[in-house]
Specification:
single chain, 217 residues, alpha+beta, six-stranded antiparallel beta sheet, two-stranded antiparallel ribbon, 7 helices
Length: 217
């Protein structure tokens, strides 16, 4: 006599196969918008990662523009300084109306053209925290140049204008003028140079250059 109880097992197998095929068909014909998104890790980036990836490229792209701005600021300062050629020397003077001494002249030009307030004395300007030391062979227009004219370092200061020349207010009885740094007198007495950093030139309000109200040279 045939063994009949196997029929329910075949029925169960068919039901399971139909269910599997139905699920596969549903997945195959799902609309694009219904598709499950891939795991977040390969697609999403943290804000920090995105910033770090974009940052270097942005910095490289912006660097020429920043350098041009710094160069333009230095050029403006040189032009401003040249406007005072012929103004008489006055000890303690800080304006074209009263006259300038050497550090009063550089202080006035920096404040007027860059918005940077230098200390009052030449030696204090050489030590100002917002300025960086520059070698003589690396001088650029707008740099401060210092000389030993009173038997002590950084006793005189002027502004480098290029082509081995600087502009300054020399001494009593003289007027603001340009000089050649290659002349023996100045070459022997040169003691250093300072430059306003790029950040200070572009954002004067945040400059760390100190302010002092002591008497000048």
């Amino acid at each position: 006599m045939p063994f009949r109880p196997a029929a329910p097992r075949r029925t169960l197998t068919r039901m399971m196969l139909a269910l599997a095929l139905g699920l596969a068909g549903a997945a195959a014909f799902a609309a694009p918008g219904d598709a499950v998104e891939p795991p977040a890790s390969p697609v999403l980036k943290t804000a920090g990662a995105a910033d770090s990836a974009a940052g270097p490229a942005d910095t490289v792209a912006e660097r020429p523009a920043l350098l041009r701005k710094v160069h333009d600021k230095a050029a403006d300062m040189v032009m401003a300084a040249m406007n005072f050629v012929g103004v008489r020397y006055k000890r303690g003077g800080e304006s074209a109306e009263t006259g300038f001494d050497c550090s009063g002249f550089t202080r006035h030009v920096f404040e007027m053209s860059l918005g940077l307030m230098l200390p009052r004395r030449a030696d204090e300007q050489a030590a100002a925290p917002g300025l960086v030391a520059v070698r003589r062979e690396d001088l650029q227009p707008g740099d401060l140049v210092f000389f030993n004219t009173l038997k002590h370092t950084f006793s005189h200061v002027g502004i480098y204008i290029g082509n081995h020349r600087f502009i300054h207010s020399p001494r009593p009885g003289q007027k603001v003028r340009t000089e050649d740094m290659s002349f023996a007198y100045w070459a022997r007495r040169f003691t250093g140079a300072r430059r306003a950093e790029g950040a200070a030139l572009l954002a004067p309000a945040a400059s760390p250059v100190a302010t002092a109200a002591v008497a000048g040279e």
